[in-house]
Amino acid sequence: MKKVKKAVIPVAGLGTRLLPATKTQPKEMLPIVDKPAVQYVVEEAITSGIESILFVTGRGKRAIEDYFDYSVELEQELENRGKEELLDEIKKVGNLVPVYYVRQKSPRGLGDAVYQAREFVGEEPFALILADDIFVTPSPLLGEIMELYRQKPAIYLTVTPVPPQDVSSWGVIKGEKVGEALYRVEDLVEKPEKDKAPSSLAIVGRYVLTPSIFEAIERTPPGRGGEIQLTDAIKALLGREEVYALELRGKHFGVGDKVGYLKANIAFALEREDIGEEIKAFLREILQGEDR
Ligand code: G1P
Question: Is the pLDDT of residue 91 over 80?
């Protein structure tokens, strides 16, 4: 049986919800505390057992390539100044995991971005990671669905309940509960209108996909927003392949928009040994000020 060893991370999106910060900077490089958002998901991939990563990039995303590379001048400078700890940290980033890049020439949707990975993936199952979604869970969410795949090969999605007014921001599933937190997916709709959503379970950004997805994407016409939607391609595989969705047990931060991005910064800062207490005291202070 084939193991999930490769991960695909699409990063070609324009980041319009975080403009103007993203005018000249990839949204994936914006820091959560002091680490770019993309590094959190790369670390999750590695802890989950991923052995190589393909970034599907686009115009204006070169900073991501530089980030996961060595930085000779900076490393030299830190060494000269005796900044050992920072030097180790910086070197670690360049050595995390083999990374590859392919360009999505025009932003034609998530399905099209995933399609650019077909040569990298070949005939193996693979993980798809959306860097807009960051989780705090007892064990890495990706690792959990990779383990489910190992026990029973199928397509695996991850979902979390969202309030009814938010369903139209997400792909939504209809599923039959088959385990404590597991659903067998019967239908999927990309960004349904509020009254047409089949449930309140929204797809969040971790998937285990099989190579059959590429041929399904080829046959998928443009959907929501005129884009080739991954959700539609997965739907086309229903009936031919089993699709399951694991419900998230933990916290989710949608860091692709302002509120989620700020929430993640606060939550991660509070967990930090070096600055957590100071941030907590500061938050108390400004909240008390508001009460008055
Ligand atoms: C994409 C998917 C959507 C999913 C979401 C998770 O949407 O198309 O089904 O719910 O990611 O983050 P996007 O955020 O790219 O609009």
Answer: no
The model's pLDDT over 175-231, given as tens digits with 9 standing for 90+, comes to: 999 999 999 999 999 999 999 999 999 999 999 999 999 999 999 999 999 999 999
Which of 170, 200, 201, 261 for mutating ligand 1's site (highest number of atoms within 8 Å of CB)?
170
Does the domain spanning 6-153+203-239 belong to CATH 3.30.160.340? no
> How many whole angstroms from 145 Cα to the centroid of ligand 1?
18
Between the CA of 238 and the centroid of ligand 1 the distance, in Å, is 19
Ligand 1 atom closest to 190 (CA):
9
Q: What is the pTM of this model?
A: 0.93
Domain ranges of the chain: 6-153+203-239, 257-292
DSSP string, the chain: -----EEEEE-----GGGTTTTSSS-GGGSEETTEEHHHHHHHHHHHTT--EEEEEE-TT-HHHHHHTS--HHHHHHHHHTT-HHHHHHHHHHHTSS-EEEEE-SS---HHHHHHTTHHHHTTS-EEEE-TTEEEE-SS-HHHHHHHHHHHS-SEEEEEEE--GGGGGGSEEEEEEE-SSSEEEEEEEEES--GGG-S-SEEEEEEEEE-THHHHHHHTPPP-GGGS--HHHHHHHHBTTB-EEEEEP-SEEEETTSHHHHHHHHHHHHHT-TTTHHHHHHHHHHHHHHHH-
Residue 232 Cβ inside 6 Å of ligand 1? The answer reads: no
